[in-house]
Please model this.
Amino acid sequence: MVKMEDLDPHHWIQWCPGCGNFGIVTAMRKAIAELELDPKDVVVVSGIGCSGKTPHYIKTYGFEAIHGRAVAVAMGIKLSNPQLHVIVNTGDGDNYGIGLNHWIQNMRRNLDILHIAHNNHIYALTKGQAAPTTPFMEKTSSTPHGNPEKPLNPLLLALSAGATFVARGYAGDLQHLTELVKEGLMHRGYAFIDVLQPCVSMYPKMSYDYYKEHTYYLKDHDPSNKEKAIELAMEEGDKLPLGVFYKAQTYSIHDFYEDIHQDLPASKHDIYDIDISDIIEEYL
Amino acid sequence: MEDIAIKIGGPAGSGVMSLGKMIGKLFQMYGWYVVIYDEHPSLITGGHNISYVRASKQKIYAHRTYAHILVALDKPTIDIHKNELKKPALVVADEGIAASLDNSDILSLPLSRIANELGSLRYYNTAAFGAMAKILGARKEDVTSVIKKLFGKKGDEVVQNNEAAALKSYESIEHSYFKLEKKANKFMLIGGNDAVALGAIKAGVKYLGQYPMTPASSILSTIAKHEKSKKIVVKQTEDELAAINSIIGAAFTGARAMTATSGGGFSLMAEALGMAGMAEVPIVIIESQRGSPSTGMPTHTEQGDLRFVMHASQGEFPRVVMAPGDVEEAYYMVFEAFNIAELVQSPVIVLMDKYLSSTIQTTPIFKTDLKVDRGKLLKDDQAQNIKGYKRYEVTEDGISLRALPSQPNCMHVASSYEHDETGFTTEDSEERIRQMKKRMKKLAVIPKHIYAPRVYGSDDANIQLICWGSTKMPCLEALKILKEEDVKAKVIHYPYIVPFPYDETIEILTKPNVRNIVIEQNYLAQFRGVIREQTGIYIDETLLKYDGREITPEEIVDYVLKGD
Model:
């Protein structure tokens, strides 16, 4: 049985001290250990940015892809071998900016992955430029006179695009986040968690203290109620709700491919002597 | 008659292409060699479409500029193509078209009348097929077999109506103009893109990620047709970025994975191509070139992307660029592409073009006893006992043991970042040099898996036609014409361009008293540039074409005999 320690690759971690990512990676390790998943069957996929380094800090299989394409890489992995647990880690710029299309399309497909978006509302690794989730008129290194764009609402978009597990977590609450990650891992379909993640270096304004004041936990919410979930997602006021907004079991693209993987996942098919005589016959 | 060329013209949507296929199928049934080539604008209906069917008792490689028979499905066809006619110069058209032209040379046929009697103008082209079968001197029962073969999957009613249309018009003609002699040959009749699809399926492709783009789109449709029976995950993606990134994900799990596109889509793929190089993930990319730059001429042919695929993506990493010369080669080379990709754990690009993608040819029946070689791929049972596994271990040949997710004891990260032997991100100078050298060692290994330029024609010829990719077809046809004119020539065709076959090229190009001519379909003579870069040898004669139309054997012969 896998223990938390087994999931630590003991690398020197390149994140800044106090980074919200520590909470996220710890929640992932904890969830995998508590669910007793075999790490060899887990693939952690990321793009580029601070979140992109996540696969290196958890001892499973991993793929650190190029900027914005983590979800597309994950799709290829999961469709070729649906037995693998695929966890995508993206940043907000990575997912809500450059990679937006893949995210929307795969929620529409209800691809069976867990997607954790590290949302620190800033481009941190490139030193503090505005991101798609940076607040309106905020001054950043690329918007010294204020951000002229309204921020994107990830949860509302996820709900409308067809994700079947939509949640908001907070990197500063390990216990709560671990539960969300566990629930997301067990969900069949697109499980999306937008994680509020303090960036202590590049956006200290949204600090741990800030989030303590500006979040609250969902109580007595029925996650099967999509209309209510949409209402909650639209709450953009002083306090943001945390928890599972929406959860449903519906068609997933994997249903279509089920027969292909029936005996073995496609990635493990024996390909040494594929018979194509029936196809050749068509051309005779 | 040894050789018959038929040109069919009409608006898009009138069944020009499928009539071409029916006639081609008839010749195939009689054991004749066939080449079919279609030309059409980027439209769904209207415009002017052509299908050109050339059949011969002798081996043929490409279409010619002339036609013996012109089948006009509309009036403009006659005007546009009448000057291409060669004896017996037969023009075949519907009675409506013939009457309006008041031209007694036109063989007037009741095509629309027959179609209307059957209740739909959809049968217009099958009626034309029946007439053509009679004109060519084919037996009635062969007309029925062609229709069964081509329409059989569409249900009994479709077959019956098409049969009725074809037979009625067959019988409306009193006598045949030719005698279609049966030959003992048994061929496949198949197009370039279908050959690519078959090569990939035979190679065990398990994941295809593709976004439709002319002229590569039919690769997606053909493989999708067989997705259930051959158990292949076929995914039409949201764009070419998702196409290539998802095949990289698929290949990472161990599935043989491929994408297909044209130059525009390949432009979007450039960044991820480098990731496949860096993370050492074996992928196969089909790039079928079209008239460019930008949107260019989507349904026309060109060889303008050679330099692009050779150098696309930032930085340096090993890759293979191959360019099959005809339909048969497309099948075998795509199969090889999957082996090479896994043997050297690098991306392989198969460079096609519109001409090859859509040319339909008779070919010997594809061999299927081909050997799949997956290189240094770790087997599940080997993984059980492995210790200290390193995905990017520095080895003698630069290729490391490839473990797959779900295998025990081998967990690692594949990374687009520079990494150490375990896959962990590093920016350390020494580690960088070690990994760079490790990857680049493959450059010495790859040449073992490719083959030299192929030489066709007489040994003692002092004219060498040097070409790559699809220009092989018109070059070989030109060789036949030159032979008839007592001009000795050779065709030197390069199926592999990266890595460049240096030794063989030096030997070929340094023969004394030889006239070398580089023939390619672009403005800048890109391949001539590659030869010069690789060997220092400058070939001053080129025959270049960039109007979107495949170079014709006649143009080649003309150039060889008269020069510029």
User: Anything to note?
Assistant: The first helix of chain A runs from residue 21 to 34. The CA atoms of residues 116 and 193 of chain A lie 5 Å apart. Residues 4-253 of chain A form a domain with the Rossmann fold fold (CATH 3.40.50.970).
